[in-house]
Write a structure and sequence with these properties.
By secondary structure, the protein is of the alpha+beta class. Helices cover about 40% and strands about 20% of the residues.
Length: about 290
């Protein structure tokens, strides 16, 4: 019977980073793309023609190739592998890092994506004032937010892929997989011990909330089983608890998680889950007063 492990938690200084401005100015990758020297042009041609970066109905702009080029220059990536997943906003690939460590490279597409769904997670967040509907600025802010949210989640004791580097619209992080392939989503595995798995997931949700974050899209599709552990992925859309829609997103997360584990035969409700998450917050606030 699988016993899932919880991380030790580090203290998170403050609940959320909602007042920290997100820098969406051009990065060094944009400068490289503008110069288009011989080495970059050769790299771009080589990568563009490889099978793994051929994306149907989608074209990476020059600055995306320049971001990959910069990550290679900075020794975060030594070789590219194949695709792990494709989505509306981003594709994820495997790559090799120094010492033959396998990493995941998440590439957000700018020119061929519909970012309407992103607006609900950005509107009302002070960090994104002035970005408006500029797709490039939205993506640059989104990637940096995902990088920051992953770091914050790990500080709070939540198992998430370790963020390694970010460059423009490209995020490098820990690869959750083995020689047999990527880690399986919770929806893809037969849970031997759904009660214990649920306890881990609800504790993760509590820890995220204590750290000032609500995932906003939590379900069995972005909970990954890697080895004997459960990991939370896709934190790009996670909002701070002060976001105007934070409670709505938390309710939806609770409904999704409770529904999944209910189908596994575990007696749980969304209300019970939300009460657990918020009661822990209230207990800590009360303790802090004494």
């Amino acid at each position: 019977m699988t016993e899932y492990r919880l991380l030790d938690t580090d203290e998170v200084d403050a609940p959320g980073d909602e007042w920290e401005e997100v820098d969406v100015h051009d990065t060094e990758a944009d400068e490289i793309a503008r110069k288009r020297d011989r080495e970059f042009s050769e790299f771009r041609k080589r990568i563009k023609n490889t099978e793994q970066f051929k994306v149907e109905a989608s074209v990476f702009d020059d600055a995306t190739y320049a971001a990959l080029y910069k990550l290679v220059q900075d020794d975060y990536i030594t070789a590219f592998g194949g695709p792990i997943s494709t989505g509306k906003e981003a594709n994820v690939y495997t790559a090799l890092a120094p010492e033959d460590t396998e990493v995941a490279v998440k590439v957000y597409r700018i020119n061929a994506s519909d970012f309407t769904d992103m607006r609900g997670y950005l509107d009302g967040d002070p960090r994104f004032k002035g970005i408006g509907g500029d797709k490039k600025k939205v993506v640059l802010a989104w990637v940096r937010k995902e990088f920051a949210n992953l770091n914050r989640a790990r500080q709070a004791g939540v198992l998430v892929p370790e963020p390694i580097a970010v460059e423009r619209n490209v995020l490098v992080m820990e690869y959750l997989g083995t020689d047999e392939g990527r880690g399986k989503r919770l929806s893809e595995v037969n849970l031997e011990n759904p009660e214990t798995a649920y306890e881990v997931v609800r504790e993760y949700m509590r820890r995220l909330h204590d750290a000032g974050l609500v995932h906003g899209d939590l379900s069995e599709y972005n909970l990954i089983v890697h080895g004997d552990e459960i990991y939370v992925i896709d934190l790009g859309q996670a909002v701070t608890v002060h976001h105007p829609n934070a409670e709505e997103f938390l309710d939806r997360d609770c409904e999704n998680v409770a529904a999944f584990f209910g189908r596994q035969g575990h007696d749980v409700t969304a209300d019970d889950l939300k009460e657990f998450i918020l009661d822990q917050d209230e207990d800590e606030e009360t303790a802090a007063e004494f």
